[in-house]
Amino acid sequence: MSLLEITDLKTYYRASDGWVRATDGVSLSVDRGETVGLVGESGSGKTTLAKSIIRLFPKNAEIVDGSINYDGTEITELTDRQLRKQIRWSEISMIPQNAMNGFDPVYTVGSQIVEVIRYHEDDTSKKEARKRARELFNELGIDPDRIDDYPHQFSGGMAQRAMIALALCLSPNIILADEPTTALDVVIQDRILETIKEKQREIDSAMIMITHDMSVVSETCDRIAVVYGGRVVEIADAETIMMSPRHPYTLGLRNAFPDISDEDKDLISIPGTPPDLVDPDEGCRFAPRCPFATEECWEVTPEAEDYGDGHMVECHRADEIEYLQEEAAKKETWMEQEIGRPDETPPEVTSDD
Amino acid sequence: MSTETNSPVTRLFDGVANSARFIRDKFEAFEGDRLGQIGLVILATFIFIGIFARPITIDFLNITIPGLAPHDPTATRVGGRLEPPSLEHPLGTTVLGRDVFSQLIAGTRVTLLVGSLAAFMAVFIGTNIGLVSAYFGGWVDDVLMRITDIVYAVPFLPFAIVLVAILGSSIVNIIVAIVLVLWRSTARVIRSQVLSHKQRPYVESAEAIGASHVRIMYLHILPNVLPLAFLYAAFAVGWAVIAEASLSFLGFGDPTMLSWGEMIFNVYTADAIRVAWWWVFPPGIAIMLFVMSVFFIGRTLEKVVNPELRHQE
Amino acid sequence: MAFRKKNRREFIRAAGATGLAIGVAGCSSNGDGNGNGVSGAEELGEQIRELNFVVPTSGVNQFRNELANMVAANWREIGIDVDFEELDFSAHVDKAVVQQDFDASLLGWGGTPERIDPHTFIYDMHHSDNMGEGGRNTPGYSNPEYDELAELQVTQPDEEERQQTVYEAQEIIARDQPRAYIANEGGIHPYASGRITGIEPTLGEGLNSFWNMISVEPLEGDTVTMGYPSEIISLNPMQDLATPDRQFVRLIYDQLFRIGTDGLPTPWAAADEPEIEDGGRTYTVEIRDGMTFHDGEDLTIDDVEFTYNLYADSPTYGSLVDVIGEIETSGNEITFHLEEEYAPFVANVLGQVYLFPEHIWGDVEPEELSDFEDENWVGSGPFMFEDWERQSELQLRAFDDHFNPPNTERFIRIPGSDVAQQFGALESGSIDFIGAIPQPTALARIDEDDDLDGADFEDIGYVKIAYNMRREPFDNVNFRRALSYCVPKTEYVDFVRDGMGTVTHSTISEHNEFWHNPDVEEFDEDLDAARAELEEGGFGWDDDGALHFGADQ
Amino acid sequence: MGLREYVIRRLLQLVVTFWAFFTLLFVLFRLVPGDPTSMFILDGMTPEQREQRIAELGLDQPLHVQYVEYISQLLTGDFGQSFIYREPVIDIIIVRFMNTIVLMGTALFFAYLIGLTFGALMGWWRGSKFERGGIVVTLAARSSPEFWVGIVLLSVFVFWLGWFPSGGMRTTGGELGGGFLARYGSTDFLRHLFLPALTGAIVFMATPTLLMRNTMLDVLNADFIEIKKAEGLPERTVLYRHAARNSVLPIVTVMAIATGAAMGGSVVIETVFNWPGMGREMVRAVNSNDYPVAMAAFFLMGSVVIIMNFLADLAYVYLDPRVEYE
């Protein structure tokens, strides 16, 4: 039994023109101590998926179906109070994208750490809580005296470390890290990632790392789930995703980031934008942007298929892996005019075949 | 060389393009914004009434467009004393038998005049002070902002009353009094906006080219803060109209210009509030509607200037 | 745009057919249709310049503001450009009376009881001695023939003789029209007949009169509350006092004589009429026995003598008693020796000097007098000062030891922002009467409300337009007379004031029956007559109807 | 720059502002036509009396002499003597000032109490009918001049329903003077206070309502609010300790300015309700050329704004740690 077991989760938003299916039938499991990466462009639904785990979404959103089982507790069935007291932060905490905005600007960083410790641990005195905050600062490489500083007095990297301290202060079992380093410059990024990994191992917690950056996940994650259009389109261990992905979207994403092994490689981005998730039609949601889409892709929603070792892929053409990988590496494949519904502009791939 | 000759021209074009885009945005912003649309309709109606309130004679064409007001608003005894509304006098008559409906229509002009002139001048002054203050900084900024502080300490109505007592109560003096106080908020806002623009690369590059201060301020920075000035102008119209009405109500209005505020002052001094509801309510409601329409429009413009607001609606 | 006042002529031209025609009568004399387009003088000189017409704002006086508008419209009608200038009271007085920087000025002149004696209206207002800055003779009227009469009447102790002189004087100024005398603005003062009784409105003052305040009586309780649209400045009799102040100072302080309800001085603190000897140059007065001040001290003949010396020393009021040469006292009598004959001595001096307690004011330096503050305002009058909070209320209490105690135990005066606001308070019952004329709209409400009534009174003061005779073309008598023919006096009284008040043509009101000359020349709205006057004066009109001097002028 | 230097610097600016403000006033009032004797001329003041009075008041002195004299007088805390009443200005003005402060203070208090609550709710229920209706109502109130609101309230509550007195500050004939509580604590006073204060509250309410709604929206969208929720803190804590605390910042500045507007607007409300306040006194003083009183009234109104602005700045330093002492 995994620590966290998400089954067929559907989180929808009410919008003026219908339901936005931000998470639409996602299943995912996370083991103790494991790091799972959620990768996708912005708007793909990865953040909603992660926040659904602690039911942290606006008033107009709700989990319409599915289950989130955390260590035997069904999170979807908890009352708000139980959720707050038992799950949030004490079991599952988070590190936001921009730490600077993650702290309330009008209170000192230390007081905000103390606030959360004292809320969850009734018998911890203020003094003890402060002591723990200082220790955490020390461990994370910040001068402990700075707990009395205000957020704006920290540099970006320091603020992110302070945020990590906040996320770790209750030794949670799962940390939701939402693009924890994108706001920072590259040199600091690595050091912060290292720090996170180190602390994670120390307290043996699992982590869900949300990012659009393939290079970040490849270094830090055990397994990677690729999210598109509110669904997990491909999931496998990090190496498989990086070396031999089967989904065209994963291929495209990989193209968009520099390859550590091949410095000369051109960066290719996927044309188009993520789909509108308001009441989507049948068919693969990636089809409109996919250079390999066939008639079937437009008509039939692909089911997840298992390719061994937990490598699940939702694609009709996942079997043609060599061809796909070869073609996807070419820049021309991703030219915008090459893509579209077959009957409008027939893509070469199909006529060639 | 090419950049040097190019730069002012392109900047100018950019400025024009910017304004064009702003105006287009403005109208786009009204789409789907019910309040903004209502505001536009009300304002357009008032403008129409204001323009055609009284007869207009075009000399060289030798034609006279008849006015909307059925009677001379100042003529006494066009009806009886304090007659309630009737077909002849849709809004009844005043204590000296003047036609309230005609007065209401004639008052629209004064309102439009005060609103537009005062707002334009206040925003013009405010924008320039804000621009100069932020652009030059240092002691210039210090002096101008201290002056702004002092103007902020001036309570508006008492100041206007004193000024009108000195200069006499004419519409021009009332506008002057309003303008002298109203520019302050625009100056502050424009200043902070310009401060942020000053740091941007395009200003640095203009400086590098050796453009003059005036050129940088008016050709490079101004087009970028103009939308904000527009917004403040919209609100200033509302405040100016309220200010004129309040002054008139206190008896400091221009005696030669019958405004809505002065109509209420007349009801008040004629001690007819309890008797002649038809004389009190129309001008009061007119003031409210007019200012509301301007505020509705301002709110919509605000979304153009500050697109973040759009997502919050 | 509402062109109500300014440049009406231009407006008419610009607007074309707008139905704005006003007073079309007499247009034909304007020469429309008789070929040459010019009437009046054979050849035209310079055009008459724009005239500066200083008038009160409608906030100061709505009635008079309307009147001014009508007058200005008529002046424009006969071809004169008018610069219509509305001013607040203080600015108006400063410009017209002090600076004398005006062409025509529309102001009122109050009809307080001490002005029932014709001296103020005849001498102060029209004698050439008083045409300096701030003087009463605002128009700068200077006519030796008239001056002689004005001086003569002061020295005539015989009332019949003096009446004849005053009659002649009135004829002369009616003929010369240094001012347009328009209307005596009597009217009604509203009161709650359901709450008070014994009201006694008098000539010129209505319910503000002294006699009313001591005779008014509450039907229930012990308090009468009076409303007045403005606040009292001071109760110090030695300060510069405005009319509302005087109306209360005289409740607290007594005089030797008071102006009676008939307008004639009657003995008050004096026991009897004065003994006049020496051809009107010696006045002897005996004071009433047993009078005391509010603090219980006796009022003696020494206090009276002290008072007159105090006035003589006062920088503010010294001139009032200038005419007194010497004062003697013996027993209960005080004798005044005058420097010269002064017919209105009883009304204007003995009736206006307030009696002071020497034990309170004795040590005050003359230049401190106007700043002196007697916290309890101790006088000997029928009311005692009780308490005062400015802009809130002034409370008085009856002085029971007075020889003529008031009928109400307490008297409260409430200042308000305006009459309209106070009328509301009268209706709601927080005020018992108002010392001001309400708007015509209130008249109907008085009729409808069983608890309310209006006290009618007439006025001897009037509203008038002063012509600045120091400047041309006002030095031309025909010009002034023509302007006076443009004043719609009847319209003003009947329509604008809804019948309150009376039209006047003389400086002495018809309600001042003894002194009023009913046979003076009359000027009411008549534009034809105005044009005829102008033609006679050698003026003429151009094609546009604008008024010009004749070429020979 | 440290806090202390900042405060000192602001204090110095305050002094300069005061001086400039005062000089402006002096010049302004000397330009008003007429002089303090104009009031009396028609009531019998002779030309000699007039000249005597002008000299007494020192108004025949050159302007700069009058200016220096007045400044030095003011430095000793003396507003001088009323030209008309001939009493110390302070005696005349202080009661009016208190009356105005009590009226406007009450109005502002309720305007902000209601406005902030209303605005916060509008922000909370964004997009709802309540919010949309609220905006229209608020803008309608903001579009109405004070006198208009006052007249409507008078018509309804006094003339029609007869629930409240039509004006004044208390029923007449009672004991005058008395302590603060005796003056402002009685039910009679509160009955008189209700309508004028309501008028002010309605007019002043719009600004805090709309501002609170906007800042609420901003703050509720802020990342840290989400973090605070993720931390498991109860909604109340998040709302009050974090969201509201941050929303208050812009309100503080606007409140200082609103106080100024309220002081200025008091003239109108006092006129409509015959309130014995400073605004009316100032109009009277201007009309009768009683400069010392008019200037003192104007000066006090301005001072309230200047001082409120100063306090707002200081409060900001305390409330928002991000403020730098520039």
From TrEMBL, chain A:
Keyword annotations of the record: ATP-binding, Cell membrane, Membrane, Nucleotide-binding, Transport
Subcellular location(s) of the protein: Cell membrane
UniProt keyword ATP-binding, yes or no: yes
Protein name according to UniProt: ABC transporter ATP-binding protein
InterPro entries in UniProt: AAA+_ATPase, ABC_Ni/Peptide_Import, ABC_transporter-like_ATP-bd, ABC_transporter-like_CS, Oligopep_ABC_C, P-loop_NTPase
Pfam families: ABC_tran, oligo_HPY
GO biological process: peptide transport
Topology term for the membrane: Peripheral membrane protein
Chain positions covered by the region annotation Disordered: 331-353
All residue ranges annotated as the ABC transporter domain in the record: 4-254
Molecular-function GO terms, alphabetical: ATP binding; ATP hydrolysis activity
GO cellular component labels: plasma membrane
Signal peptide: none
Residue ranges with Basic and acidic residues bias: 331-344
This protein's record includes keyword Cell membrane: yes
TrEMBL record, chain B:
Subcellular location: Cell membrane
GO terms for cellular component: plasma membrane
Record key words, sorted: Cell membrane, Membrane, Transmembrane, Transmembrane helix, Transport
A family per Pfam: BPD_transp_1
Keyword Methyltransferase listed: no
Residue ranges constituting the ABC transmembrane type-1 domain according to the UniProt record: 108-298
Signal peptide: none
Top-rank taxon, per record: Archaea
Family the entry assigns: Belongs to the binding-protein-dependent transport system permease family.
Protein name: ABC transporter permease
Source organism of the structure: Natronocalculus amylovorans
From TrEMBL, chain C:
BP-aspect Gene Ontology terms: peptide transport
Pfam families: SBP_bac_5
Keyword Signal: yes
Coiled coil: none
Presence of keyword Magnesium: no
Cross-referenced PROSITE patterns: PROKAR_LIPOPROTEIN, TAT
Keyword terms, alphabetized: Signal, Transport
Alphabetized Gene3D superfamilies for the sequence: Dipeptide-binding Protein, Domain 3, Periplasmic binding protein-like II
Superkingdom, natural source: Archaea
GO molecular function annotations of the record: peptide transmembrane transporter activity
InterPro entries hit by this protein: SBP_5, SBP_5_dom, TAT_signal
Entry-linked CDD domains: PBP2_NikA_DppA_OppA_like (cd00995)
UniProt domain Solute-binding protein family: residue ranges: 45-132, 265-545
Family, per entry: Belongs to the bacterial solute-binding protein 5 family.
Protein name from the UniProt record: ABC transporter substrate-binding protein
Phylogenetic placement of the source organism: Archaea, Methanobacteriati, Methanobacteriota, Stenosarchaea group, Halobacteria
From TrEMBL, chain D:
KW Membrane (keyword) present: yes
Gene Ontology BP terms: transmembrane transport
Domain called ABC transmembrane type-1: residue spans: 97-312
Transmembrane segments: 12-32, 101-125, 146-164, 193-211, 248-273, 293-319
InterPro entries, per the entry: BPD_transp_1_N, MetI-like, MetI-like_sf
GO cellular component: plasma membrane
Domain of life: Archaea
Compartments, as annotated in UniProt: Cell membrane
Keywords from the named record: Cell membrane, Membrane, Transmembrane, Transmembrane helix, Transport
Bilayer topology annotation: Multi-pass membrane protein
Cited PROSITE patterns: ABC_TM1
Sequence similarity: Belongs to the binding-protein-dependent transport system permease family.
Protein name, UniProt field: ABC transporter permease
Organism: Natronocalculus amylovorans
